[in-house]
Amino acid sequence: MLIAFGAIFALVMMLLALAFRPAGTGPTWAAGEKLWIIGLGLVFPALILLCLLAYGLWIGERLVPRSGAEVMRIEAEARKWSWRFSYDHDARRSTENVLHIPAGRPVDIAITTADVIHSFWVPRLAGKLDAIPGHVNVLRIEADAPGTYAGVSAEFSGRGYDNHRFSVIAHEAEDWQRFLEGEQ
Amino acid sequence: MNALARHRRLTAIWSSEPGWKGWLSTVNHSDVGRMFIVTAAFYFLVGGLLAMLIRAQLATPHSAFAGPEIYSQIFTMHGTIMMFLFAIPMIEGLAIYLLPKMLGARDLAYPRLTAYGYWCYFFGGAMLLISLVFGIAPDGGWFMYPPLTGRIHSPGINTDFWLIGITFVEISAICAAVEFTVSILKYRAPGMTLGKMPVFAWYMLVVSLMILTGFPPLILGSILLELERAFGMPFFQVELGGDSLLWQHLFWLFGHPEVYIIFLPAAGMVSTILPVMASTTLLGYRWVVAAAVALAILSFGLWVHHMFTTGIPHMGLAFFSAASTLVAVPTAIQVFAWIGTMWKGTPRLRLPMLHILGFFVTFVIGGLTGVMVAVVPFDWQVHDTAFATAHLHYVLFGGFVFPVLAGIYYWLPLVTGNRRFFRLGEVAFALIFTGFHVTFLAMHWVGLMGQRRRISTYAPEDGWTVINLISSIGGFVLAFGLAVVLIEVVLNLVVRHPAPRNPWNSGTLEWAIPRPSAAYNFASLPRVSSREPLWDEPGLPARLARGEGYLGEAASGRRETLMVDSATGEPEQLVIYPANTRLPIALAAVTGLFFVSLLVKVYLITPIAIAAVAALGWRWAWQLGSKQDLGDRLIGHGVAVPTIAEVSRPPGWWGSMFLLVANATLFGSLLFGYAFLWTIAPGWPPPAFIAPSLPTLLAAAGGAVLAVAGLAIAGRSNQNGGTPVPGLWMAVAGALGLVAVFSMMLWAAPPATGHAYNATILVLGAYGLVHAALTSLMLIFLLARHRAGYMSQRRRGELAIVTVWSVYLFGVTGLVVPAVYLPGLVT
Q1: Are B82 and B164 spatial neighbours (Cβ–Cβ below 8 Å)?
Q2: C-beta separation of B311 from A135 below 8 A
Q3: How many helices (H) and strands (E) does chain B have?
């Protein structure tokens, strides 16, 4: 995307620079509405946008949660300024500011809030999704490798916003089994 | 009468009072335009200062410069001031100053309204400034999302300053938009058809219609949020049937068009200045106008792209993503029309052109990153990071500030009569251009690295230190550049160094006014036969000064101009303007009293303020008109037209129509909010619906019909030479009946604090009540005017104006009553 946009930018700048060529040296066809407005103004961006849109929808489609037996569901509730994660295999089981997930498996995070709007964002795992009072938004994440991933809230929420963070621990299969059984 | 005598006579008629007192009573567009520009420039300095504080805070990690509380106020006020107190008023000021001169008129449609708008801006801006000085400024981010800005999470007065102050300032935007629309459609030089209008006027027409339909959702949102904060009406509280997402929809319904409201006037300046700089005409005038219209319409269809992360369904995302990328097409048409114009002509690298080149570079980058963030998966990553902030600065600084700087340098000789003395502008441009790109390219970068917007500090481990420092240094370079511009403009004002009359060899009419510029603009009004009248006839200014155009005689001794047919530009009516008056500042002051009483919650004063507004409004309308029929007046070249007091569609009729467009948008937004809460908010349906009563329904229907029918009878009777009084009384009875109906509705409404449904019913009823009361007042005004002798068979315009309002009342009643009672009937 960056390369294509760089090329468009270069093209526009080149046309702009060439406008300052000495008077009367340009071809006569270059002064017509057809070239500039129909060609460059209408057809050119339309083509680019069609490609871009198709690409965007295709990527977006892949990111949309699909139901499946494999998918585990974790509830994430934000508040000023912490996160609580509850695990659906055990309603009493919850963690503060640390989200445990199995590595290599898709996980649905059901995001909501107890007070103002927050936003769930783990940059290395997925895009962000807001936590809105009264609504539950579901975000599909998947960690390819075990490890710890940094997460933040990405919606301004007042005084404690700077440090409204959490972390995500992705466990290997045995580790995850141990976590499920209640050992840490 | 020779040219000098005419100049003296017209100056005596048109000039404001001498000394500083003249500012308080002036209604002249050149004066008020300059006041707008200077005040907006002042707020640009304040907003810029806040930007410098932000950059100082972020320049180093763990900065102890400002704590999070103060920092929140700084960035909130930076955004708020730049958007509402700088950009929009600057546009208003430039257009107020330039439009009549470009269109070949002597003033805008409603001179007193111009001044009223300014004073609303002045007082409303002062409220926000005071909050900033006392450290109680708004601190919820410039888009003020509840519940953070609700009573529970922001109990202080800070948020109220925003909601009330900004709404007060918005009055000036609505006033200006009504005024521009009517002025562009009706107040032009004879012969100037729509297709011969300067392209800037086309852009401003589009922008004005956008303001009329874009600002009301925000005004409604502010009213609802303030009602929630002050009286506990839970529009945005999810536990009680509200939904915080409603605010986001209302805000971005305004907020996205707002971006184009800021960009399009600037594009209009580019379309005006660039062809002159290339000694040619604009390539594809019609295409450019069509592109501006298309952009305006599209901009209302993509507010949701600011809400891609709120959990919008996938189909909705796809639609709004497609619509968002689509705006690139009309934008590309304009950009390539401009570049084609340069190819067609021979561009000169003068100072305004430098800024236009700066605009091209910056705006094209901003547009391309804009297409990037319109792609949903990309937006999910960069939303609410410094990347988004950097993108919006590329669009707004590139798309607005650079063209405005070009405009300032282009029109400076027109305003001051001087040319530049020192070549500071070129240095300033280099500083601004470099500083800007260093600052915001760095911000794109740090945003991609994950820096969120609005954080007050970060840790060295984040790895953002160097980039932020670079960005801050760039910011200070930019600030120096802008300071140099300020110095140069001030020098240009004080150092006498006369410029030739038409220094750029432009073709448009603003360069045909006398030098130094005179309060009356044109000693006589030109007849126009092309888009570049000055290129057709370089001797035009002298001929106009000799009084060879229209209205060269200054016969009535009052301020006169012409209204024309909006399509053909043929003279239609002779306008006689009100002269200097302190009514606008007085009305703005009591309007301010109303807002202050809400801010400090002294509700005893509120009804007093409302009564004062009504009384001054009455006086305002009373000053117009005439007690005798004047007949058709000669305007020169053997043409005679009636005065505005003796036509069926006077300026007030046109103004009412466009004001009601804004009003209807507000009402439509309210109905949208009602439907939105009903369908989307959790906690619906409410515990109980209001039960309708048959007598109320019948009274509402009867009152609405009577109000409209009475006026129709009055109008018919007046037209046939009879008396309108019986019909008027009938209409009064109908309107007062509606006052009773809506009062009953409010009286019987369940407690508004209980559920968002109850609160919505209350607002719907109050909206109906306000309109019933207003129409009653207008009808009683008509009766008083008739008794005082201001109405005759010829002088029928006021009846037409009130008819528009009473038909609107009919429509409001027909929508409010079912909206309130139908759910109870059905369930």
Answers
A1: no
A2: yes
A3: 27, 4
Which residue, among B92, B111, B85, B41, has the nearest Cα to B576 in the 3D structure? B111
| Pair A147, A57 in one domain | no
Q: Are A37 and A76 part of one and the same domain?
A: no
CB atoms within 10 A of CB B331: 25
Residue A85's DSSP bridge partners are A76, A95
CA distance B574 to chain A (A): 40
Q: Are residues A60 and A124 in the same domain?
A: no
Q: Which domains does chain B have, with CATH numbers?
A: 1-262+532-581+623-676 (1.20.210.10), 685-827 (1.20.120.80)
Is there a contact between B310 and A56 if contact means CB atoms under 8 Å apart? no
HSE-CB for B433 with a 13 A CA cutoff: 19
Nearest-by-CA chain B residue for A1: B372
Residues A176 and A108 in one domain: yes
pLDDT at residue B209 above 80?
yes
> Do residues B106 and B510 lie in contact, with contact meaning Cβ atoms separated by under 8 Å?
no
| Nearby residues of A2 by Cβ (< 8 Å), 6 or more positions away | none
Residues A50 and A79 in one domain: no
Lowest mean pLDDT among A1-10, B86-95, B398-407, B486-495: A1-10
Confirm whether A27 is domain-assigned: no
Instruction: Look at residue A27 in the predicted model and tell me its pLDDT.
Output: 64
Domain ranges, residue A53: 32-64
pLDDT grade for A31, boundaries at 50, 70 and 90? low
Judgement on whether residues A124 and A76 belong to the same structural domain of the protein: yes
Q: How far is CA A43 from CA A34, B6, B321, in A?
A: 11, 55, 19
Instruction: Give mean pLDDT, residues B97-102.
Output: 97
Touching check for A154 and chain B: CB below 8 Å? yes
Instruction: Provide mean pLDDT across the span B642-653.
Output: 95
Q: Work out the pLDDT band at A29, boundaries 50, 70, 90.
A: low
Question: Which letter, b or e, does each residue of A66-81 get, where b requires 16 or more Cβ atoms within 10 Å of its Cβ?
Answer: eeeeeebebbbbbebb
Residues in chain A: 184
Residues 84-103 of A with CB under 8 A from B: none
What gap in Å lies between CA B22 and CA B380, rounded to an integer?
Answer: 54
| Per-chain mean pLDDT for chain B | 94
Same domain, A115 and A176: yes
Name the CA radius of gyration of chain B, rounded: 27
Is position A157 within any domain? yes
A140 bridge partner residues: A108
Window 47-66 of A, Cβ < 8 Å to B: 48-49, 52-53, 55-57, 59-61, 63-64
How far, in Å, CA of B550 to CA of B799, rounded? 30
Looking at beta carbons, which residues of chain A come within 8 Å of B756? none
Question: B581: how many CB neighbours lie within 10 A of its CB?
Answer: 18
> Is the model's pLDDT at B815 over the cut of 70?
yes
Three-point CA angle A115, A119, A122, nearest 5°: 140
Residue type for position B750: P
CB–CB of A158 and B336 under 8 A?
no
Is residue A1 assigned to a domain?
Answer: no
Shared-domain flag, residues A39 and A119: no
Task: Give the span between the Cα atoms of B681 and A108, in whole angstroms.
Answer: 23
State whether residue A5 sits within 8 Å of chain B by CB.
yes
Q: Write the CA distances from B145 to B163, B171, B252, integer angstroms.
A: 12, 22, 11
Mean pLDDT over B572-586 rounds to 96
Of B597 and B302, the one with more pLDDT:
B597
B784-799 residue pLDDT tens: 999 999 999 999 999 9
In whole angstroms, what is the distance from residue B367 CA to residue B335 CA?
11
Contact of B41 with B90, CB cutoff 8 Å: yes
Task: Provide the pLDDT for residue B375.
Answer: 77
